[in-house]
Amino acid sequence: MGERHIIGALRTKRAELSGTLRQLEQQLAQHRANLAHLDATMRLFDPEIRPIDIRPRQLRARNAWFRPGECLRLIYDELREATQPATTRELAERIMRLKAMPMTDDRCRALVQKTLLSSLNRAKTTIARVETAGVVSWRLI
Fold this sequence. Notes:
The protein is mainly alpha-helical. 58% of the residues lie in helices and 10% in strands. It folds into two domains: 4-53; 70-140, Orthogonal Bundle (Arc Repressor Mutant, subunit A), CATH 1.10.10. Strands 1-3-2 form a three-stranded antiparallel sheet.
């Protein structure tokens, strides 16, 4: 058994993961207790209320590059000025130029592009996806 350093590293990683899991389970138990207390308090004020019918709201992580709603506003501005549908990459490059972000960082551009793509996909009623020759572009409806 000449691979002791590998076993040692794997044991350390397992200890780290099991510690994280234990902490998350404790947080989950606390959140469940808080939710039960909140449901009971709501029933005090309205005995007919059904808390189970209240849909959960998904929390979104805040973006470091854009204020709330700014990303979609910038997309609308760029698409309004465009003479033809723009690809996600083109939009990302234009918006990065507007925000004075470094254009040379490929990882940064890919993350901005991913952020733009999620905003574009959420704006289905106002922005249309146009696919020509396998290339996806976007235009205002």
